[in-house]
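Pilot study result, target chain (186 residues):
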Amino acid sequence: MELALIQSKIYTIRNQKVMLDFDLAKMYNVETRVLNQAVKRNIERFPEDFMFQLNEYEWHSMSSQFVMTSKRPKSALPLVFTEHGVTMLSSILRSKTAIQVNIQIVRAFVAVRKLLYAPSIDRVTELKTEIKELKAYIEDVFTDYNDINEDTRMQIELINESLAELHTDRKTTLKPRKKIGFITEE
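Predicted structure:
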């Protein structure tokens, strides 16, 4: 049985990853009622954190999400099994098929758990990193811009000082000149 197919049959209900009784029965190649009878004969092996029955609201909200391949009586709500419950099924269903399917199902649950808890770099994290890098780059550019402005201001100040010095030097060394051209006496 393909791992992806099994993973597609794992649902989140009541904040737990679970599998439905009729999906498990199909995988084990038994009827749903046979699976449920085996569970009821060994009910002490299935506490509520291993198996529970869906309520009407959960069943209706779930059944609207996918096409039902199994016609269930209206009175019978599906049983759902957590990873531990699926593992416990292997102790009551002893066929070779059940053992092999159970191994695959446990692997599927483990793969789903790894996906949930693996520190993956998602798009948001990637964008946050890019924004940080962009901010650092902009700060560097503005720092360089301010440095250039400061350098430019200092150079303009030096030019103004030099011009002022030249102007004062010119005034001190300036002698009255002789007038050039036709001079009339007044």
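One observation from the pilot: The CA atoms of residues 28 and 95 lie 9 Å apart. A full batch analysis is planned for the follow-on phase.
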